[in-house]
Amino acid sequence: MAQVTVVGSGVMGKGIAYAFATSGSKVVLNDLNEEILEKAADDITGLMEKSHQKGFLSKDELEIAQSNLQLEPEISKAARNADLVVEAVLEKIDLKISIFQQLDEICGPDTILATNTSTMSPTEIGAQTSRPDKVIAMHFFNPVHKMKLIEVIRGLETSDETVNKIMDISRQIGKEPVEIHEFPGFVTSRMNCLIGNEAMNMLMEGVASAEDIDKAMKLGLNHPMGPLELADLVGLDTRLRNMEYLHETLGEKYRPCPLLTKYVKAGKLGRKSGQGFYDYSEGRVAHGV
Hints:
Elements: E1 3-7, H1 11-21, E2 26-30, H2 34-53, H3 59-68, E3 69-71, H4 75-79, E4 84-87, H5 93-106, E5 112-115, H6 122-126, E6 135-139, E7 149-154, H7 160-172, E8 176-181, H8 188-205, H9 210-220, H10 227-234, H11 236-250, H12 258-265, E9 278-279, E10 284-285
Parallel strand pairs: 1-2, 1-4, 2-3, 4-5, 5-6, 7-8
Antiparallel strand pairs: 6-7, 9-10
Helix pairs in contact: 1-2, 2-3, 8-10, 8-11
């Protein structure tokens, strides 16, 4: 891909921009909030420098990667010449559809439009454009620079050509793609949400502390991160939106744990707010029951 535009400069947008910029593509990072956009650029270049210090990027590769990254707050300018656009905004279907409708008008007819969603329907999003055959989901994982998997989700009208291109692109940026036919939650989100929700229910019921629930999953089932730690990393507001969507589309077993709803209402959103199931300011477990 000669140019990749990433819409949204949050945690996932930053990681996706890093992955493409360090793999040789020109990357235009877009966000309406210029202050957030500048902070994202600082974070990305800082990560590039750390990668150089650790030997993952040579000095020449570092300089090329840094020069590959551009910032643009106006989506019309950011996406005008893109070969691929990856949207990485909040998990709100109306917001995503609005962005894709704009991109459909802005981009050339051959541009592929991808959504980095963990649950939403690329079929529904693509149907609101004039190019449903070129709309697809690329579900990256956090932190993007470490996680190898990309779920490539085919919508009802996504063409084989589009799927094959995205599978190839995923490998070119050092990831391992898996092809999935669209169904709510795909593969990983359905499993993660169930495990995480049950962990929250156990915490609410007083079965064990957050630390011990996570330790049991890590040491007993060889998970690299406990389900409550993972929920804090993802963001409890994001996890709640995912659970609400899965509850609506897949039924009662995905009903969000009341403790999750209570934490989000209290502003305890995980790492990004300083407190979730763990207190990151002091390292204490936040039981909240």
